[in-house]
Write a structure and sequence with these properties.
Elements: H1 3-11, H2 27-34, E1 38-46, E2 49-55, H3 59-70, H4 74-81, E3 85-87, H5 102-108, E4 112-120, E5 123-132, H6 140-158, H7 162-168, H8 179-192, H9 196-209, H10 214-222, E6 226-227, E7 241-242
Antiparallel strand pairs: 1-2, 1-5, 3-4, 4-5, 6-7
Helix pairs in contact: 8-9, 8-10, 9-10
Length: about 240
């Protein structure tokens, strides 16, 4: 990344006033500048929920959705530990590290992935994920620039509290990428009389068992085509019921 490339990306990170967004830069431009094929930023909202704020279309978005559906992968690992994860060759990772994720991530065409925490005083606000189709380590200069972008993103998010306040107040979250998942988790929590964290586990289990994206299942829950009850369960409390 040249100095002018880095300056242009950093300058465009803040969203336009009144846009309602949290990040304003072009993710594709950032990925090109960092020498990777894709970039994504997800933030943690609590109770196991995360929100995808910013990503290049295609593989990066699909990888984020896969990790969110399964609840495992380098991104969730970084979110839990607050420590960066570097995987220069995903095909060489032990199968037991992310057993449900690795094969599908390779099918997506992810050869290498690098995840950096959005750190605020020792707490992990979210994760920036860089991915490449070609295996190999991230160049030292690109990694240093990625940390600069990550720190600038963190500052931009912390200094833009309005979207966070809207979500906390349960206002209209239609501009959130995973709005249906947040709403579905709340509905399942009431239907099954469980915590939001347990509701998300049940939603994930149903999606995984049926081989469907989590967002699609969430849409079915919100539309009341799938219903969860407290006594459902040939698996731990998980049994979606379709209503015609």
């Amino acid at each position: 990344m040249t100095g002018s490339d880095l300056a242009a990306v950093l300058e465009s990170l803040r969203p336009a006033p009144g846009s309602g967004g949290m990040v304003g830069a072009d993710a594709r431009r950032c990925a090109r500048a960092l020498g990777v094929d894709g970039v994504a930023v997800s933030v943690t909202l609590g109770s196991g929920l995360t929100e995808l704020l910013w990503s290049t279309p295609g593989t990066s978005t699909q990888l984020e959705d896969l990790q969110f559906t399964l609840g495992q992968g380098p991104g969730p690992e970084v979110a839990a530990s607050g420590t960066a994860v570097s995987v220069p060759d995903l095909s060489l990772e032990p199968a037991g590290r992310w057993p449900a994720l690795l094969a599908d991530a390779l099918v997506l065409g992810v050869g290498a992935v690098f995840c950096l925490p959005l750190d605020v005083g020792g707490a992990c606000l979210g994760v920036m994920t860089l991915q490449r189709a070609e295996a190999g380590p991230l160049e030292e200069r690109s990694l240093a620039d990625a940390w600069i972008v990550t720190n600038a993103l963190t500052a931009a998010l912390v200094q833009n509290p309005e979207p966070w306040a809207a979500f906390a107040a349960a206002e209209d979250t239609s501009h959130f990428y995973r709005a249906a998942v947040h709403q579905a988790a709340g509905m399942i929590s009431v239907q099954a009389d469980v915590s939001l964290a347990e509701a998300l586990i049940r939603l994930r289990a149903h999606a995984f068992r049926h081989g469907r994206p989590l967002i699609e299942v969430a849409d079915d829950v919100v539309a009341r085509r799938v219903h969860f009850r407290h006594d459902d369960g040939d698996e731990p409390g998980v049994r979606g019921r379709r209503r015609d």
